[in-house]
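To: structure subgroup
Subject: Chain for Friday's discussion

All,

I'm putting the inputs and outputs inline so they're searchable in the archive.
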Amino acid sequence: MRPIVSIVGRPNVGKSTLFNKLVGQRVSITEDTPGVTRDRLYREVEWQNRYFLLMDTGGLEVNSDDVMSRQIEWQVDLGLADCQLVLFLVDGKAGVTAMDHMVADKIRRSGKPCLVVVNKIDTHETPNDVYEFYELGFPDLFVISAEQQYGLGDLLDAIFDHLPADAQTEEEDDSLKIALIGKPNVGKSSLVNFLLGENRMIVTNIPGTTRDAIDSYYEHDGRKYTLIDTAGLRRQRSVDTRIEKYSALRTLSSVDRADLCLFLIDAQEGPTEQDAKIAGYAHDQGKASIIVLNKWDLIEKETNTLKTMEDRIRTVLTFNHYAPILSVSVKTGQRMDKLFALINAVDEHYSFRVSTGLLNDIVRDAVVLNPPPTDKGKRLKIYYAAQVTTRPPKFLFYVNDAELMHFSYMRYLENQLRKNFDFTGVALHLEVRERKERS
């Protein structure tokens, strides 16, 4: 896997701008408002035939100083969890702040190598007050303007000087990345060992044996897969040690870089509130998902036993109605032969694209069958729709008034898409955009 370089820093220092410039395309939304970036993004950076993965951290919701501190700490932890190098971005115009010192302390305690990057210096003559950033305690300091792309070449050279040489030029891994997620002791490591045919993972009945996210490479019927075994996520109040905290962070980071998540549930225990939180994170990130009901061999079977369990799962994981459920026993191998056929099918659905013409035919039929809502005599008009991305599939609906699009009608449109196309295992993202009606 490519080495990971993480950009961390307090709000509004230019993290997303730097990310976009290094990646070479506008991926992160950039505005002069703290908190614009809400998700972590991973993109490949190439420089003189060398490569790394750049991670942009975000998710800041700034309402008060206390909330700011907690959110920045959380984002720095996420940025540090999996990376091999930190780009500590600071604002050269604002100078050193107390929040910069807080971030510096977090980076120092992590032990990760760090480059201090002083941004927003739009002149080739370095101001003397830039050197005050040495008080943050790191020896490597670079002066750049991300917006003007000044100093980025020297920064990239320094980045590669700090990364393992053998990881910089290897061919990109084209395998399907699958994260195994779930509570502790549901059989994630056992499933990986079953597929690999070796005891690569330590398997015990002690919850939390797996501390890190561990990648294993697997080939099945000529296709390559990367299996990411993750530490089981515990209830938040149970995460009371430094190691446990970073295990949880690495699990979330593993979901971020996965294409598809296998969500394991213990058939003896059934779905729980904690399961909903774990699966909810994968859902929120738009990952393809399969629910694997493990230890099915230990369940006494009666009429409708499986249907009763499936109904329980759907009740607890209401948002994950699209994910197929496969009951297996990793211990006996029961139905494990069906797993990869299902994985490949879901991955195809994840990449499926609907033509604009066909999509709008379906939308028109849906509108005729069930007219859009009205409010105070004004009716919602859907001008047209377009699928703008795959993996996950994202659809934009251009309308006369976005406020008229009730969530129930949005769900209706999603159901019509699912009725006409097989999106099993895939979360659909539907967004509304206003467009002025032509006079």
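Points worth raising on Friday:
Residues 27-39, 59-64, 200-212 have pLDDT under 50 and may be disordered.
The first helix runs from residue 15 to 23.

D.
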